[in-house]
């Protein structure tokens, strides 16, 4: 991606995030309160993710899980018992992603790009695959749209973590590399519309 493209992308993100926070700030606050009452924990969930150039940042989401003693997993599926009914609704409608408008405004994320992963994935990329780290992670993107039913897909597997590591993750890498190679602001707008629709 050229330097000019990155500047245009950042200006686009900044303007759109300001509009989004102005329009949906009230919804973020209300849903965060509901999430707190629903889970008994903070309404916002913050987790370290790998960002541009491998820099770690805290991604923000609405909390959709409650703590259940003895239940831990690195790959969440739609059958995860920690996900509440309201939390499942957040995830299905992508409302849980709304707080990431703040991440975009702060310059940690973009509206479109590779999804920000936990440590152990993006930060382990090698060779030409590391091009994925050259741009900011996104709220949505071609890989997110391609795997829009990822949690349901993982829930169908006997070993979700193995399936993610061997099938889903490599496919995401290829999709995201193609996105960066063929980048255009017009494509970003198309991906945003596809996500909303």
Provide an overview of this structure:
With 197 residues, this protein is mainly alpha-helical. Helices cover 49% and strands 10% of the residues. The chain has helices at 3-39, 85-93, 100-105, 142-146, 150-155, 160-181, 185-196; strands at 44-50, 56-62, 110-112, 138-140. It has a two-stranded antiparallel sheet. Strands 3-4 form a two-stranded parallel ribbon. The chain is globular and about 50 Å long. The chain starts with a helix and ends with a helix. The model has no long low-confidence stretch (mean pLDDT 92).
Rounded mean pLDDT score? 92
* Secondary structural class: mainly alpha
Low-confidence stretches: none
Shape verdict: globular
Give the topology.
Layout: H1 3-39, E1 44-50, E2 56-62, H2 85-93, H3 100-105, E3 110-112, E4 138-140, H4 142-146, H5 150-155, H6 160-181, H7 185-196
Parallel strand pairs: 3-4
Antiparallel strand pairs: 1-2
Task: For the structure shown, list the relevant keywords.
mainly alpha, single chain, two-stranded parallel sheet, two-stranded antiparallel ribbon
Question: What is this entry, summarized?
Answer:
By secondary structure, the chain is mainly alpha-helical. It is 49% helix and 10% strand.
């Amino acid at each position: 991606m050229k330097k000019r493209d990155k500047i245009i992308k950042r200006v686009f993100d900044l303007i759109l995030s300001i509009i989004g926070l102005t329009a949906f700030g009230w919804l973020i606050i209300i849903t965060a309160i509901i999430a707190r009452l629903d889970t008994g924990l903070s309404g916002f969930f913050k987790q370290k993710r790998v960002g541009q150039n491998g820099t770690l940042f805290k991604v923000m989401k609405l909390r959709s899980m409650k703590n259940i003693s003895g239940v831990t997993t690195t790959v969440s599926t739609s059958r995860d018992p920690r996900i509440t009914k309201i939390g499942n609704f957040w995830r299905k409608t992508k409302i849980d992603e709304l707080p990431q408008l703040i991440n975009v405004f702060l310059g940690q994320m973009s509206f479109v790009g590779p999804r920000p992963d936990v440590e152990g994935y993006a930060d382990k990329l090698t060779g030409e695959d590391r091009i994925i780290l050259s741009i900011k992670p996104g709220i949505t993107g071609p890989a997110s749209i391609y795997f829009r039913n990822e949690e349901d897909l993982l829930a169908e597997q006997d070993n979700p973590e193995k399936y993610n590591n061997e099938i889903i993750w490599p496919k995401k890498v290829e999709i995201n590399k193609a996105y960066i190679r063929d980048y255009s602001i017009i494509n970003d707008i198309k991906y945003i519309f596809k996500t909303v629709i």
